[in-house]
Amino acid sequence: MTGSALLSALAIGLGVGIVGRLVLPGPKAAPVWLTVALGVAAAVLGSVTIRLVGVAVDQALPLLLAQVGFAVTAVVVGVVTAGRRGAEGARRP
Q1: Measuring CA to CA, how many Å separate 38 from each of 41, 72, 82, 89?
Q2: How far apart are CA 85 and CA 83, in angstroms?
Q3: Which residue from 16, 69, 85, 91 lies 20 to 30 Å from 53 (Cα-Cα)?
């Protein structure tokens, strides 16, 4: 992984994590640090995956799409899962 791919993964992960936390409806059971961490980790995973598939380093668009796609998916799943878990815990006496 190149330095620019790592920096773009960090920036995309931070952005997606923060925006996803604000945009997703429902109870805010997931803390901001969790959504940001999920976004960054998933964006890095998207970078690694796109390189393993064989996309050249100089092709920025597939890298960007993979990073954003992985990050958005991870943040949505993380927030929804945390919301369900928090709601189930709130029902117990």
Answers
A1: 5, 9, 12, 22
A2: 5
A3: 16
